[in-house]
# Entry
Amino acid sequence: ELCRLDLPLVKLPSPKTRADAGIELAPVETKPLGRTLSCNAVADFNQNRYAAVRPRVEGIVRQIRTDVGTTVRSGDLLAVIDSASLGEARAEYLSARALLDLAHKHWQRLQTLAERQIVPGKTLIDAETRFTEARINVSRARQRLRNLGLSASEIEAVEKNQDTSSLLSITAPLDGVVVRRQVATGEAVQPTSELFAVADLRTMWVYLQLYEDDVNEVRMGQRITFLVGGDTQHEYRGTVTWISPEVDPHTRTVRVRAEVDNADGQLRAGMYGTGRIEIEPPRPSLVVPRLAVQWHEGAPVVFVQKAEDLFEPRRVDLGRKQGPWWEVTAGVKLDERVTTTGSFLLKTELQKGSIGAGCCE
# Structure
């Protein structure tokens, strides 16, 4: 409840004094204010739209067809690897297919002869066994090609074209941008070597570090805003997608992850900033600039302009703070004009004229 004792008015020598002292004014306004939690945050790639590209074969890099920063589509050629093991695998597959065809024809011929009782049944069983073994060998050879990174259509092309080439095309696994390249032409690579990394930058992840006392107010789907390095011109908006089930034993913070829109592509992995989680949705509130609020005798005060050179100090009740604004729940009315820059000068004048005039009970 506000103190009932009025504070003395502050009168300047002349209207020109206000301008000379740099005292500025702003109206009491209505703005939508919500309740937010602010914390440190860092951006990262969206790991659901990120891929490390590995060859899955050992070999020598023969061609590089892309570079960092290049926008690629799924299936675009990134590099070509010369792998002896791939050539052997293709030849093994073609050989297994040829043996399967022979085993199949031999089994069909013996089946006809067995029906005429020209050959014994054991001979037919032996042929059927070899046919089954041939099919298993084809399946094994096909699976080896799949393990080496060939798609079903590429395996069909091997058989159709009788291709025993040792060259393997490395393609982009998704639409995105090449964000990392770690290979050069002529370099020897292993199956687990990372050649490239491709990321879809249209969305990014932001990790927020919340104190354990605050995390109980956070829910999945709540809106967040990420400001990079305090730059209010670049705000990235998204929603909470994950809340860690553990507390960091060293910092006593909980990680919260949000997915934010990055349509302009300006947000980069590793950027630090401030994350704001919307705990309560915005509602219309009476606000003044934070610069307007001064403290007098332990209570918040604003200076309301009554004339060009006359100002009334008003004790106010304050609500929530958001950005440059402070909610006022009592003490001022809409469209009244209050001082902002230079308010402390009026506070100095007020203190000169109110010594010993403390607040009543």
